[in-house]
Amino acid sequence: MPEPLVAALDLGSSKVVALIAQVEKSGMLNVCGIGFAPSRGVRQGLIVELDAARDTVLQVVSHAENMARVKMPSPAVSISGSHISCINGDGNIALSTGAGSRGRTVTELEVEQVLANSQSLQLSIDKSLLHVVPQRFYLDGAPCEDPLDREACRLAVDTHMVLAAVTHRNNLQRCLQQAQREPRRTVFSPLADAMAALTDEDLDQGVVLVNFGAGTCDALYFIEGALAHSWVFRYAGERVTRDIAAVLKTTLQEAEELKIRHGRIAPSRKDGEAKLSVPLLDGTGSQTVTQDMLARVMQARVRETLTHVMKEARRLEIHDQLRGGMVVTGGGAAMNGLAEFAESVTGLRTRRGRCEHYIGPRGILDNPAYLTGLGLLALEAAALPEFNRDGFPLLDRLQIHGQAGGSGSGNRGKLLDLLKGRKHS
N or C, which end of the chain has less CB nearby within 10 Å? Predict the structure, then answer.
């Protein structure tokens, strides 16, 4: 019997990635198909040219299928952008029939009901519910990690809800349908990163995960084992490139090459004195700049972004609870010296997010730009009995609920648990 297949499609502002993986008999993910191409038709996470975005999806899927020599199954698909917002909610339901009567055992039906109850809010006409993430359950007022199979008279929950623009979700759905790829689920990009990169210890100590994408910077704040807050900042990697182009008076293409090849946010004294030749925008010649000058240009925008990440934490009064520090992901996390620079700006211990629990070409997939895809694969594999979940502890710790598929028609749709195999307390 052939190994089951799972697939992921990450539509970013700078790169589109398709991954196909087999779930081996050992339980490991074996990434056997990879397709990637520069993104077209996507800006700041939004599809702005449907035909261009569709053609890019077709291109990367074809590359992944040719490499894997299999047809790509329906993928989990990422979503990001400045249209994403969040809100916290709460809900409760009675499990007993009246005063003095016994409660009853909590089943998945009651969990679904109380999560639906927590969504009793009026969404604006342009927003749809993307995810509902439980922060904490309560049985008769007492906190409970997992209420399943426990007896109580009342079940309550605090939730974190992620919202997305209806128009963008519909455009994403149309793009994928035209590419003949119906999504199995749509996942907020940094949540997929968290599945691949974070540990139980990260959640217990409190951590902020920062996805430095090309179009936006996304942050997730985890406090006391739960997702406390999510936040999107519209300036990210593309803005760094534009700053380099403006200050050094060169083309955007040359600025991107400088950022990737020579960009060191925290260069050593020796490296900082290195000379770089930069073509001028008007084509009249070139100028010589130092590595240190390039670093200062990059530092200015990255410092602004990191400052906003910490400002948001202080606004929520959780900055003192981030004892686990910061984990940086996304294509921007590959910038040389980012972790060290982030530590100096935020005062938080910082590391680059990595995923170790897969089989495949690590020379490619260890780039943090692929972390979202690996997290999407883990989410897809989570329901398969063959899959070894040990390398992805957040599949059990962080329960993500949402609408199946990729359509975003308002707040309708049956609430489905996207993750199976819950841990019972």
Answer: N
CA distance 64 to 48: 24
Whether residue 224 lies inside any domain: the answer is no
pLDDT(372) > 70:
yes
- The domain total for the chain is 1
pLDDT in tens, 338-367: 999 999 999 999 999 999 999 999 989 999
> Of 196, 185, 80, whose CA–CA distance to 404 is shortest?
185
First to last CA, the chain: 35
Task: Give the Å distances, CA to CA, from 208 to 188, 227, 323, 340.
Answer: 15, 10, 10, 16
- 94 inside domain: yes
Does 119 map to a domain? yes
Give pTM, 2 decimals. Answer: 0.89
Strands, E assignment, 12-123: 15-23, 29-38, 42-43, 46-47, 76-79, 85-94, 104-105
From the list 322, 376, 129, 76, the residue with the least C-alpha distance to 210 is 322
Predicted confidence at residue 411, as pLDDT, reads 34
Query: Tokens representing 221?
Result: 């704040």
**Structural domain boundaries, residue 105:** 90-161
Helix H or strand E encompassing 142: strand 142-144
Q: What is the β-pairing status of strands 185-188 and 5-11?
A: unpaired
User: Could you read off the pLDDT of 43-73 as tens digits, one per residue?
Assistant: 877 888 999 999 999 999 999 999 999 999 9
Per the CB < 8 A criterion, the answer to whether 353 and 325 are in contact is no
Share of the chain above pLDDT 70, in %: 92
Instruction: Report the pLDDT averaged over residues 234-242.
Output: 84
- The pair of three-digit structure tokens given for residue 335, joined into one six-digit string: 């910038």
Residue 113's Cβ-count burial label (10 Å; 0-12, 13-18, 19+) is middle
Find all residues with CB under 8 Å of 375, minimum gap 6, and list them.
187, 191, 192, 193, 194, 195, 196, 197, 355
Separation between Cα atoms, residue 270 and residue 272, nearest integer Å = 5
Tell me if 26 sits within 8 A of 388, measured CB to CB. Answer: yes
**299 inside domain:** no
DSSP 143: E
